[in-house]
Specification:
heterodimer, A: mainly alpha, Glycosyltransferase, 2 domains, 16 helices, 5 strands, B: mainly alpha, Serine Threonine Protein Phosphatase 5, Tetratricopeptide repeat, 17 helices, about 70% helix, about 0% strand, elongated, binds zinc ion, Protein farnesyltransferase/geranylgeranyltransferase type-1 subunit alpha (chain B), EC 2.5.1.58 (chain B), repeat (chain B), magnesium (chain B), Prenyl_trans_a (chain B)
Chain lengths: ~375, ~325
């Protein structure tokens, strides 16, 4: 494959990274069994990471498009006579009359095909109407979303959680399906209720989270949702300022007074430059992405506010696994595919090559008109 | 209830699992057992079989693949069916649900990061259990917090319980956060829980002044123990914002914050060593509230930018800009 202009500092380990990523797309041992139903997450993380490294991932994986597309499936929901469609996480979950598509697998599937530039799928195979119906069916009366439906009657599943992650995923799917204006979105979901739900997750001094405890992951989901809906103006100026500050405070430091934390179990001077997801927690590769993505949504000149060079250094020097390839959560763990993808994503976001709101490269969004 | 035995399903035709598709990516070598169990499960689901053996099968599959959402849904429907069939018998229903909670406790301990367990639990209590009780919930909450005192899902679930069970004995909850803060003063989730409790109290009856004063003293004590700890400083700011006349309360605390900071030297740009950047930040905010002390705020931010918290230099300079 043709290599891209990558981060210079990644150069040395590129072969290992590619090996690590290709391993995850190959034959996986049975210890991965429990991931089976959410396998699409693995495919997405690996393909997006490879698209950061290579110019022409879409060519290389051309022959796999059929397999990816075969996860897209539709159902007739009896009571409403409406068709719904989406992706299952694994072909083993496609069984007639058992609804097993989920919002996350659907987003991962759509983004994988976007990254592989599968125009034919989007123009000829995807049925946007039934896809959007599926999203609509996942919304609850409080405005939030669950991630899957009752396998039989197609109502929102009674056993699933409903939180900002699924709100984000729902709106991202609608966006990819072509919704742009409020009217477009309102055709399938209740935007006002969704905005009310998002508002209810605002924390006292910035950030979003459940029951008042701000969390960088939820914050990124909330802000990305608002960005896709073009509703950032619903946040008050104070709340935005507070959120920016809360996010900047998540960058860990060993300088000045910050080193006076000997008794803090979660303080590690080697975390310098990285980001944590909540107060008094260790730095973690994925939170570099969640925090920086949140910041870039709130401020065009975000790089002037935080110290992104140090974050880059933290990811490259501390969580990049030079032995196995890939990135880990922090240096105490082995590399895993999720943190590898978000490590690449954070680095590319800093370079300006990444669409953080959709979590794919800018090349892909531009090529596919998103 | 008897254990899982594959022979109980010998009459079930297995739903074939699609595999060996051309050019498959990320092919997982699942075991024969996995294939067999899934094959049985899909067949039973299609047939709407809500039997004991179907119920046992779901336990077995959740054991192997706890992230398999459809199985949780299936299990719930079987349980729902059982509950309906003993509609007339409260004791039977209660036993059924308590057995289910016992089983769920086990699964929870084995899968601490799985979030499905909590939403499943919530629907059991909300929709099926005839007489749910917080007493039944506390032991598992305790075990999970012992295992990871900052587990976000567990704290969320605890707060959900307080609302769901309409808990009014808030002192117990405050004591609980005390004990956790005593064992780890940096536990932000415990501090956050404390705020949640005070907000809940304030909703039922306005907090009275002696409680407010007592709490401010409590926070001050914790800050004195470890001045460079963001959690109690954030909590202090939140507490004053939510329950006090903010500007007055903040000004009143200037002398307290100055204990950790040699403010006069900082004002003269001498930048001595100080005990807490958060104290200085608190002072900067306090000074920002009044035009006459704005210049003092600027000096505090300058100190943060150059010496006390230089990684956030850009933020502190941005704050100075906002003051102009
Ligand atoms: Zn992480």
């Amino acid at each position: 494959m043709a290599q891209k202009r990558v981060n210079m500092s990644l150069e040395d380990n590129l072969t290992k990274h590619v090996k690590f990523l290709q391993f995850h797309l190959s034959l996986l041992p049975s210890r991965y069994e429990s991931y089976e139903v959410n396998k699409f997450a693995i495919v997405f993380y690996a393909i997006v990471s490879l698209s950061v490294i290579y110019q022409d991932v879409s060519e290389k994986y051309q022959s796999n498009l059929g397999w990816v597309r075969s996860h897209y499936t539709s159902y007739q929901v009896e009571e409403s006579r409406k068709k719904i469609s989406g992706f299952v996480g694994s072909l083993s979950a496609i069984v007639p009359d058992v609804i097993s598509i989920t919002l996350p697998n659907t987003l991962f599937g759509l983004l994988t095909l976007t990254t592989l530039h599968d125009r034919e799928f989007f123009e000829k195979i995807l049925d946007t109407e039934s896809l959007c119906n599926f999203v609509g069916k996942c919304q609850l009366t409080d405005g939030s979303f669950v991630s899957f439906l009752d396998y039989k009657d197609g109502s929102p599943s009674a056993v699933d959680s409903h939180d900002l992650r699924f709100c984000y995923i729902a709106v991202a799917i609608l966006y990819i399906a072509g919704c742009r204006s409020e009217k477009d979105f309102n055709k399938y979901i209740n935007v006002d209720n969704l905005l009310k739900f998002i508002k209810s997750q605002e924390c006292d001094f910035g950030g979003f989270g459940q029951y008042g405890e701000p969390h960088a992951g939820y914050t990124s989901c909330a802000l990305s949702t608002l960005a896709l809906l073009q509703k950032n103006e619903t946040l008050t100026t104070d709340f935005k300022e507070n959120t920016i500050e809360w996010l900047l405070q998540r960058q860990l430091s060993k300088l000045g007074c910050q080193k006076c934390q000997e008794s803090n179990e979660y303080y590690d001077e080697n975390d310098h430059g990285g980001f944590q997801g909540r107060e008094n927690k260790y730095a973690d590769t994925c939170y570099a992405f969640w925090c920086l993505n949140s910041l870039q949504i709130l401020r065009k000149d975000w790089k002037k506010l935080c110290n992104a060079d140090l974050t880059k250094k933290y990811i490259l020097k501390r969580t990049q696994c030079t032995l196995t390839g890939g990135f880990s959560k922090n240096d105490a763990d082995d590399a895993d595919i999720y943190h590898t993808c978000l490590g690449f994503a954070a680095l590319e976001l800093i370079e300006g090559n990444f669409n953080g709101v959709l979590c794919i490269t800018k090349d892909s969004t531009e090529q596919m008109g998103l | 209830m008897s254990d899982f035995n594959v022979e109980d399903y010998s009459d079930v035709t297995l739903s074939p699992l699609t595999s060996d598709v051309e050019n498959e990516l990320c092919k997982i070598m699942y075991t024969e057992e996995y294939k067999q169990l899934m094959g049985i499960a899909f067949t039973l689901m299609k047939q709407d079989e809500f039997s004991d053996r179907a119920f046992q099968l779901t336990s077995k599959i959740i054991d192997i693949a706890p992230a398999f959402y459809t199985i949780w849904n299936y299990r719930y429907k079987i349980l729902d069916d059982k509950v309906t069939s003993c509609r007339e018998n409260d004791d039977a229903r209660i036993n059924l649900l308590n057995d289910e909670l016992d089983w769920l406790d086990e699964v929870t301990l084995n899968n601490p990061k799985n979030y499905q367990i909590w939403s499943y639990r919530q629907s059991l209590l909300t929709n099926l259990h005839p007489s749910p009780s917080i007493k039944r919930e506390l032991p598992i909450l305790q075990l999970m917090i012992d295992d990871d005192s900052k587990n976000y899902h567990v704290w969320s679930y605890r707060k959900w319980c307080i609302i769901f069970f309409k808990i009014t004995d808030f002192n117990k909850e405050l004591e609980y956060t005390n004990s956790l803060i005593d064992s780890d003063i940096y536990n932000n989730s415990a501090w956050n829980h404390r705020m949640f409790i005070f907000k809940s109290i304030n909703q039922s009856e306005k907090l009275d002044q002696s409680i407010i004063n007592g709490e401010v003293d409590y926070i001050k004590g914790k800050i004195e123990t470890v001045p460079q700890n963001i959690s109690p400083w954030n909590y202090l700011r939140g507490f004053l914002h939510n329950f006090c006349h903010e500007t007055t309360a903040v000004s009143d605390l200037i002398p307290f914050a100055e204990k950790f900071v040699n403010i006069e030297e900082i004002q003269n740009q001498q930048l001595p060593d100080i005990e807490s950047s958060y104290a200085l930040e608190f002072l900067a905010e306090a000074f920002s509230l009044d035009d006459s002390t704005k210049q003092r705020a600027v000096e505090c931010y300058k100190g943060l930018a150059t010496k006390y918290d230089p990684i956030r230099e850009n933020l502190w300079n941005h704050k100075i800009e906002l003051l102009k």
